[in-house]
């Protein structure tokens, strides 16, 4: 095993920690752009508390509201213009993954003279990977993406029908302030999608890794089991603060690099395919994942059977005849899909009103944006266009 791990984000976790926002922010700036979504933080009173905490610390607040789910590059440009016009020296993201992702790219766009869409990998020969950004503080109000403590962002372009990512060290937030109390107002469906998203982040590195990574496997299985135990509790009773806290911590650790460090993960094929479907239909990210992941698992289990048998045994306690027991592997996938259904996630494209008309286009687009030197979608196994089409057909 050879690997390097860096995560420079300071993590502050616990109910009530929103009150420390001003104290944290004061270290980094005096003029903050406070970025929010479609209004949930205003309805819940979270926005006012955040603004007051910043004001009490002597920080002047400027606002960028209205970042949409599957955040658009147009919102990034609007936010960057506001930050520039007001000489902001700090960005504060208060919202879900969409707000946090938009905030990251705003933080870099403020210091970049070109078009911020250059930063997003959308198949251009040489994306502009940013090397500098304003300091960013993330305050997630929804447990799902892990964006609060990683250096990635996913942005959509409605005009070109593309949705893709940027990853750069300068995009790590300075501070991630995690207050599970802020998530109690998240509705049941978004809570379930968050659970699905975080588990999919883990399964992507678990199943696409090199194997022979016993510590990472046990970490991954522990977080999956915890999410499967506390996720349904948070969905059943949104005010169950302990369940909210467990789910929020699970979401953060699922994608802050710790679980995947050293796993030799070859890629995020389920995410890459989902991003294309989202780009065409603006579907909720994890609704797409709940549909594509089980179909992808059935495809990958044929060649990586032993890992799927391990998943079936350790997550669902199933018995296997041996590490090549494909029936056991398949039963584990069936149980996983049943779990997703039980928490209210869709598991077929038809449930979102999608049919097979654009399946070839989704596959082509996915591979146009992300491919290895052989033109395949990275993963284990790497996927051809026909493989992607096969997985999507199985998900109809
Ligand atoms: O916009 P508002 O009014 O705030 O409402 C949001 C939105 O409608 C609502 N919400 C958020 N917090 C709430 C709340 N409602 C009530 N109470 C609260 N406390 O939830 C809805 C969904 O919000 P959104 O931010 O879109 O959800 P999520 O956190 O799932 O983020 C999804 C985005 O993140 C990207 C996805 O592709 C998608 O664009 N991802 C980012 C990643 C990253 N940066 O590492 C990794 C992920 O795999 C993912 O791709
Ligand atoms: Zn995701």
Task: Give an overview of the whole structure.
The protein is globular. With 396 residues, it is an alpha/beta fold. The chain folds into two domains: 10-183, Rossmann fold (3-Layer(aba) Sandwich), CATH 3.40.50.1970; 188-394, Dehydroquinate synthase-like, alpha domain, CATH 1.20.1090. Helix 9 crosses helix 13 (359-369) and helix 10 packs across helix 14. 54% of the residues are buried. Helix content is 46%, strand content 10%. The protein is built from 14 helices and eight strands. Residues 37-41, 44, 69-70, 95-99, 101, 141-142, 144-147, 150, 152-154, 182-183, 185-186, 190, 197, 255, 271, 285 line the site of 5,6-dihydroxy-NADP (NZQ).
What would the average pLDDT be, to the nearest integer? 97
When the domains are counted, the total is: 2
Shape: globular
Would you report the number of β strands? 8
Instruction: Specify the helix fraction band.
Output: 40-55%
CATH architecture of the largest domain: Up-down Bundle
- What count of helical segments does DSSP give? 14
Q: First CA to last CA: what distance? A: 39 Å
- What string, H for helix and E for strand, traces the elements in order? EHEHHEHEHEEEEHHHHHHHHH
Helix-strand makeup class? alpha/beta
In short:
It is built from 14 helices and 8 strands. The chain is an alpha/beta fold.
């Amino acid at each position: 095993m050879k690997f390097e791990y860096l995560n420079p984000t300071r993590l502050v976790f616990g109910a009530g920690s929103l009150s420390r926002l001003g104290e944290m922010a004061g270290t980094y700036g005096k003029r903050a752009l406070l970025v929010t979504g479609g209004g949930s933080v205003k309805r819940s009173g979270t926005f006012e508390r955040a603004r007051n905490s910043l004001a009490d610390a002597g920080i002047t607040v400027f606002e960028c509201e209205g970042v949409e789910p599957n955040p658009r590059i147009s919102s990034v440009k609007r936010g960057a213009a506001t930050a520039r016009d007001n000489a902001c020296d700090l960005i504060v993201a208060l919202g879900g993954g969409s707000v946090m992702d938009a905030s990251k790219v705003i933080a870099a766009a403020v210091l970049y003279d070109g078009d911020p869409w250059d930063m997003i990998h959308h198949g251009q020969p040489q994306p502009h990977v940013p090397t500098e950004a304003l300091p960013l503080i993330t305050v997630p109000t929804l447990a799902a993406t892990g964006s609060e403590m990683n250096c990635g962002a996913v942005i959509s372009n409605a005009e070109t029908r593309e949705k893709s990512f940027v990853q750069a060290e300068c995009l790590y937030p300075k501070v991630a302030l995690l207050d599970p109390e802020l998530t109690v107002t998240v509705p049941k469906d978004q809570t379930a999608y968050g659970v699905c998203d975080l588990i999919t982040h883990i399964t992507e590195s678990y199943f696409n890794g090199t194997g022979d990574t016993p510590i990472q496997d046990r970490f991954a299985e522990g977080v999956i089991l915890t999410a499967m135990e506390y996720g349904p509790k948070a969905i059943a009773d949104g005010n169950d603060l302990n369940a909210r806290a467990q789910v929020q911590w699970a979401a953060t650790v699922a994608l802050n690099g710790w679980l995947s460090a050293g796993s030799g993960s070859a890629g995020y094929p389920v995410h890459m395919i989902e991003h294309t479907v989202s780009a065409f239909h603006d579907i909720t990210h994890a609704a797409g994942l709940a549909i594509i992941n089980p179909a992808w698992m059935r495809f990958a289990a044929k060649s990586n059977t032993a890992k799927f048998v391990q998943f079936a045994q350790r997550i669902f306690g199933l018995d296997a005849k041996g590490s090549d027991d494909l029936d056991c592997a398949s039963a584990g996938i069936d149980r996983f899909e049943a779990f997703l259904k039980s928490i209210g996630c869709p598991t077929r494209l038809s449930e979102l009103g999608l049919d097979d008309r654009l399946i070839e286009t989704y596959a082509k687009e996915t591979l146009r944006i992300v491919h290895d030197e052989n033109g395949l979608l990275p993963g284990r196994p790497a996927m051809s266009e026909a493989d992607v089409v096969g997985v999507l057909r199985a998900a109809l």
